[in-house]
Fold:
Amino acid sequence: YKKYSISNIILLSFYYLCKKKLLIIFLTMITFPCCKINLGLNIVAKRSDGYHDLETVFYPIPLCDALEIKKMDEEFPSPTPIDLKVTGNVVECDESKNLVVKAYHLLAQDYELPRVHAHLVKRIPMQAGLGGGSADAAYMIRLLDERFRLNMGNAEMERYAAKLGADCAFFIRSEIAFATGIGDILEPVDNEVNGLEGYYIALVKPDVAVSTAEAYAGVTPKKPIKSCRDIVRQPIDTWREELTNDFEESIFEKYSILSEVKEKLYNNGAVYAQMSGSGSTIFGIFGQKPKNIKELFPNMFTYCVRL
Structure:
């Protein structure tokens, strides 16, 4: 080896290992699915298909999971075309029902996808009304599109995402949107809502799980007096009296801890506080960085960030 430089030795070793199939290089891609809150949520009508029409403003929040994929080697002995590993803030679940897996199989019906390894690291709490599972599914679609050059475009990806869940389509773009239908019809929201830039948001999730069916069972659909899209265009100090989540009344009766969290956020300076989605996360919006959120809500999931 004396006649070779160190760099040449490294390159020759790399070449030898590749020839002998002792070293396999994978192109790995990673993305960070964000979550969302609902600024207002009104259940406006019961549909003939059993679902409900709603109105809400989806607002993306930079609390993110991490999702990584890499192409599976041809000789890797996997019984399924997608090998999913889930770590982090998770509960026991059937991986075959995971929305990341479902997103892969959905695209595989129409596109020739290679087998992949996927690793999902959960930071967004589950059953929290933050859309974590929906975000993971949408970002998987985006990741597969980019990695394997499917060239779908946003509209096509939204069409696929909507098949996986009512709010999945929102996460293809992850931009502030006014949602109607079952949450799948998205329209831009005027810049006024961007007045939240510079505010702080605190998320608090007690150890409470609210099922979607349970939430809808306690709601009587009705058209709101004023659309939440119009309300969020107003100054934020008017929201407390007008911007509502229809799920809160019945859910708070059953889980009083949620109403207590909301009241405590207000008592500690929140300009506005609300339950997100069907729960069980309560968020508070603050003009100044709130202090001691973790200490105020012990044994609960908390997250605070400047918007």
User: Anything to note?
Assistant: The CA atoms of residues 29 and 69 lie 6 Å apart.
